[in-house]
């Protein structure tokens, strides 16, 4: 039996199993629990990598649960896919790989970071559950299950953001996030119900194959785009994001970055695979572009004035999500125009997809360095830091790499994806590229500020006893640094193996539908 | 016309829930509004699956009728109710902790995270 075919189910089962075994494992003491956390996230990473390899080699893979055969896309001889179907194409596998890398790094980091606190059994359980929810959003082929997984990840993240429940601000941030994501997921559920009422189907591929634009479909599209944009933190609905990112324990913040990317994945799946070329008007693509521009500019301009290090990075997340929305929005704009697509549209999508990878890696790394500083010094405010480069050389080194990558300095991966986005958005309108460039400059300015105040300058007497953080935290950061450096040193390999298949899969609506419905569109 | 009545109810409840979330200042009332929002979506799902004069969607012991109601929305509703239970419990426990830390459940006074 070829067990590669079971990978889509395994990638969900492993973290879910970890979540339920964690309380039992915590009875065995600290070491057993830490080993479980790292082992589960490492196994998930391995399975994600194998799934990615498998999908690249053999095309879209799907898995039917509850049917008589797991590899029969139309179970029990039915004409429509009615069971729970997981569908993994190159884009999903790419996203799951990004998410699994970040989850592994965050788990390694948390082992030492959370060492001083009690209640770690719950932490490990929720962490695994959050990983399962995030990966579930990426591999599911069914819009109702997408809602289920978004709720699993939301509920796990409420608990994790409020993990330090003696801090009032953590409770406040968690409540804010809970409210926003509850409203958002109710919109998603009503949209799923409306699609079901219209087509009697919940499978995304099957809905995509019969979808015709009408007023109901437009309403559904607006509900889905609005709520998923809210969940990934675009500008007018971003207020929960800096709070939640700043107040969560750092290993969790790092994973939350990947979870917000899962919402972005859902947004793209809806726009490209369900609606695709039948969308017919340029309203939604322009909305995405405008959301993107607003997030980029306002996000970064709010970040420049922050002096609390994780809040500052949280506002940068808002602005970085803008880049992806810009790139993917430009791609969506020219989806049914073959010439413009070949000219610049596909470049934009490649840029957007590559930026998802880059953003997940360097933003997670930046949050981890911020957490390392907090662990070592106990301070969050930039004004109370100074001269940390002498005390924490490794952290400083990795911070510099991540900051250079997020600012888009030439040898690093952020530069490549940003360049692709500049080039392609310039072809639509020069103004888009100008905003993107200004944002990049402001990003650089604000990270120069952080670097200067926290790491350089005279040493503060209150920080004289600071030491470098323990090895497990450093290894967690090294994982992400290695991913950034790998993508920076081999940009052409990364673009052709990692990014291009994902971008191609995203554009290929008929391929996504055909895999489930057997090519009979 | 009367067949569409559930959907009007759904619309009214949904708007009430949204208004409640954005207009009220009391955290408990906001949690109630979230529950109303969830219930309206559940009514929507159940109403979608109903067929006039339909029986239970089971092949044996179903009685005389030949039309059956759709089982999928009912399964979806059950799932959604379970999820709503979990989130309501979480929201209420967060409100409890907010009360413990701030001594108030008025939205305007719970503002430590700004800027």
Question: How would you concisely characterize the structure shown here?
Answer:
The complex is a heterodimer of chains A (521) and B (115). Chain A has 521 residues and is mainly alpha-helical.
Describe the structure.
The complex is a heterodimer of chains A (521) and B (115). Chain A has helices at residues 7-26, 30-58, 90-113, 120-139, 143-161, 168-199, 204-210, 215-231, 240-247, 250-275, 283-304, 309-333, 338-377, 388-391, 393-407, 413-428, 430-455, 471-489, 491-507, 509-517, and strands at 61-65, 84-88. Chain A has 521 residues and is an all-alpha fold. Chain A has a domain at 281-489. The two termini of chain A are 31 Å apart. Chain B has helices spanning 5-23, 27-49, 71-102. In chain B, α1 (5-23) packs antiparallel against α2 (27-49) and α2 (27-49) packs antiparallel against α3 (71-102). Chain B starts with a helix and ends in a 13-residue tail after the last helix. Chain A binds chain B through residues 82, 144, 147-148, 151, 154-155, 158-159, 162, 165, 168-169, 171-176, 178-179, 182-183, 186, 189-190, 192-193, 196-197, 200, 202, 243, 246-247, 305-306, and chain B through 14, 17-18, 21, 27, 30, 34, 37-38, 41, 44-45, 48, 70, 72-73, 76, 79-80, 83, 86-87, 90-91, 94-95, 97-98, 101-102, 110, 112-113, 115.
Specify the biggest β-sheet of chain B.
Answer: none
Q: Which two chains have the most extensive interface, and how many residues on each?
A: A-B, 37 and 34 residues
What is the element string of chain B, with H for helices and E for strands?
A: HHH
Percent in strands of chain B: under 5%
**Number of H/I helices of chain A:** 20
Run of helices and strands of chain A: HHEEHHHHHHHHHHHHHHHHHH
Proportion of residues in β-strands of chain A: under 5%
């Amino acid at each position: 039996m070829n067990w590669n075919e079971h990978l889509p189910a395994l990638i969900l089962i492993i973290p879910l199993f970890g979540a339920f075994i964690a309380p039992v494992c915590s009875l065995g003491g600290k070491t057993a629990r830490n080993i479980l956390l790292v082992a589960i996230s490492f196994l998930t990473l391995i399975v994600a990598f194998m799934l990615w390899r498998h999908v690249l080699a053999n095309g879209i893979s799907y898995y039917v649960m509850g049917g008589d055969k797991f590899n029969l896309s139309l179970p029990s001889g039915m004409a429509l896919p009615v069971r729970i179907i997981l569908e993994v194409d190159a884009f999903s596998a790419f996203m799951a790989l990004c998410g699994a890398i970040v989850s592994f790094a965050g788990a390694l980091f948390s082992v030492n970071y959370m060492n001083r606190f009690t209640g770690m059994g719950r932490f490990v359980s929720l962490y695994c559950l959050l990983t399962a929810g995030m990966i579930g959003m990426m591999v599911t082929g069914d819009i109702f299950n997408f809602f289920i997984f978004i709720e699993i990840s939301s509920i796990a993240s409420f608990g994790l953001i409020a993990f330090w429940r003696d801090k009032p601000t953590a409770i406040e941030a968690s409540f804010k996030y809970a409210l926003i994501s509850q409203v958002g997921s109710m919109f998603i559920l009503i949209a799923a119900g409306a699609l079901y009422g219209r087509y009697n189907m919940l499978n995304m591929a099957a809905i995509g194959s019969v979808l015709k634009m009408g007023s109901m479909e437009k309403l559904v599209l607006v509900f889905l785009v609005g709520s998923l944009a809210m969940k990934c933190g675009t500008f007018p609905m971003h207020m929960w994001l800096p709070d939640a990112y700043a107040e969560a324990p750092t290993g969790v913040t790092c994973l939350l970055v990947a979870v917000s990317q899962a919402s972005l994945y859902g947004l793209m799946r809806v726009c490209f695979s369900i609606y695709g070329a039948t969308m017919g008007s340029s309203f939604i693509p322009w909305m995405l572009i405008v959301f993107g521009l607003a997030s980029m500019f306002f996000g970064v301009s709010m970040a420049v004035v922050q002096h609390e290090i994780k809040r500052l990075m949280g506002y940068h997340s808002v602005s970085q999500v803008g880049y992806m929305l810009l790139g993917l929005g430009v791609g969506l704009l020219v989806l049914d125009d073959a010439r413009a697509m070949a000219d610049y549209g596909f470049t934009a999508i490649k840029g957007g997809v590559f930026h998802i990878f880059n953003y997940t890696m360097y933003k997670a790394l930046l949050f981890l360095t911020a957490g390392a500083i907090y662990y070592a010094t106990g301070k969050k405010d930039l004004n109370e830091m100074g001269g940390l480069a002498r005390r924490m050389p490794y952290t400083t080194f990795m911070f510099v790499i991540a900051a250079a990558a997020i600012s888009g300095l030439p040898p690093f991966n952020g530069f490549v994806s940003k360049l692709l986005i500049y080039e392609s958005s310039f072809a639509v309108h020069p103004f888009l590229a100008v905003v993107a460039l200004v944002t990049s400059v402001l990003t650089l300015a604000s990270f120069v500020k952080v670097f200067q105040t926290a790491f350089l300058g005279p040493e503060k007497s209150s920080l004289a006893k600071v030491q470098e953080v323990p090895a497990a935290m450093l290894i967690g950061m090294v994982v992400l640094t290695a991913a950034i450096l790998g993508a920076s040193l081999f940009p052409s390999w990364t673009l052709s193996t990692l990014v291009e298949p994902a971008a191609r899969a995203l554009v290929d609506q008929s391929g996504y539908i055909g895999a489930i419905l057997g090519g009979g569109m | 016309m009367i067949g569409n009545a559930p959907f009007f109810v759904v619309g009214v409840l949904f708007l009430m829930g949204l208004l409640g979330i954005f207009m009220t200042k009391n955290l408990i009332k906001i949690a109630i509004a979230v529950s109303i929002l969830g219930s309206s979506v559940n009514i929507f799902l159940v109403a979608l699956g109903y067929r006039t004069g339909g029986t239970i969607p089971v092949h044996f012991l179903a009685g005389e009728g030949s039309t059956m109601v759709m089982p999928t929305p009912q399964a979806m509703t059950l799932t959604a109710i379970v999820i709503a239970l979990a989130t309501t419990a979480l929201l209420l426990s967060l409100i409890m902790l907010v009360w413990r830390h701030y001594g108030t459940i008025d939205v305007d006074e719970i503002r430590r995270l700004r800027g």
